[in-house]
Fold:
Amino acid sequence: MLVKQEMINKIRDYFELNLYETKVWLALLAKGVASAGEIANLSRVPRSRTYDVLESLEKKGFALVKLGKPVKYIGVKPKMILEKLKNNVRSNAQERIETLSKINSTDEYAQLETLYKSGIGLVKREDISASLKGKSNISNYLSDLIREAKQEVMICANAEEFLAKLKLFEQTFSILLKNGIKIKLGLSGSEDLIKKMETRLKMKIKKVDIDAKFFIIDRSEVLFYLSKSSEKEDVAIWLNSPFFVEAFSSLFEKVME
Structure:
């Protein structure tokens, strides 16, 4: 069986198989129906291991045992395998979500919160800052900061980037306005695009000539992106320094006037 090593490696990663399982499954697909001996010859997997590998593939749903004698195996259609794996991922993810959603009602979680509050209470507020990496990590942290706003949220971003996440911001803004939180939004980019978003969000948006993205919460915390959306990995810094952020907010307000 002439299969390039590059393909074997990729199939192995895609379907989370080991090397022998990948070789045997590919050989089985190429042969259609085959005995363990035929598969061993075709895949070049040691005959002594082929039986164990075929049994493993059968348990995982990649192979079927053909009825009759001698014992032969049938390779399962790749499309069926792919759908099965996707369903497994969905099922496992849902179970994981349900498990995680119950954690915050446990005693252990309450103790975690107590540990965090007692630890953070020992640190001076102006000493708290952190770097964040990864789109998901930054988005989750930012969502948490915005949800905890008490008075005001100030945002500076690019209009096109903002439009890409407009549905998410619509929901967030709705919650903030319902809670009486002021929103000051400054966007760089196309004036026509900004006007369209003003109509959709039903709020005033200031056009600014600042090529930056940051979020200021209650003039005490700021999350500032250090990378552009075109870069492979998002990087941001979070500062919890009322003195610095108040000064930063004042400068931004002057631009917004």
Summary: The chain has eleven helices and ten strands. Residues 221 and 240 are 4 Å apart (CA to CA). The beta strands are 33-34, 63-66, 72-75, 128-133, 152-158, 182-188, 205-207, 214-217, 221-225, 235-240.
